[in-house]
Amino acid sequence: MPSEHRALPRKRLKSVVPVTNDDTGEAVGRIFDITVEGFMLLTQQTLAPDTLFNFSFSLPDERIGPAEIKLQAVCVWCQGSSFSEEFGAGFRLANLSPIYKPAFQRLVAEF
């Protein structure tokens, strides 16, 4: 993984949050940790850095906002995980609609 360039600390989620690639309709992985600026996915496949992805995921608790969040994120890096046979991939948020932003921020803060 490249040296740390984040301004915000990462938070590991307590809930499993599967992520879907909206361009293919396939499950791409699950969120491992998150900030308001991006997240790390654990995935079974390598993902190309500098690629823009359209993702969606369901919230662990629908009371915090829309049941599903859709966003665009750019893959910053991808490498084999040091603790499993999966790959870790870091993403920077590229586009998050204002209707999803409060729910996304609460996901970061509460889960």
What report would you give on this structure?
The protein is mainly β. The chain has a single domain (11-110), classed as predicted glycosyltransferase like domains (Thrombin, subunit H, Beta Barrel). The protein contains 1 helix and 7 strands; from the N terminus they run βββββββα. It has one helix spanning 101-110, and strands at residues 11-12, 18-21, 26-34, 38-43, 52-58, 68-80, 87-96. Strands 2-3-4-7-6-5 form a 6-stranded antiparallel β-barrel. A hairpin with a 4-residue loop joins strand 2 (18-21) and strand 3 (26-34). It starts with 10 loop residues before the first strand and ends with a helix.
What is the count of β-strands?
A: 7
How much beta, percentage-wise? over 45%
Proper CATH architecture: Beta Barrel
Query: Which CATH class applies here?
Result: Mainly Beta
Number of helices: 1
CATH topology, what is it called? Thrombin, subunit H
What order do the SSEs take from the amino end to the carboxyl end, as H and E? Answer: EEEEEEEH
Mean of the pLDDT scores? 86
Structural class: mainly beta
Please list the strands of the largest sheet in the order they lie side by side: 2-3-4-7-6-5
Low-confidence stretches: none
Quick one: biggest sheet? 6 strands, antiparallel, barrel
Overall shape: globular
**Amino- and carboxy-terminal Cα gap:** 25 Å
User: What's the alpha carbon Rg, rounded to whole Å?
Assistant: 13 Å
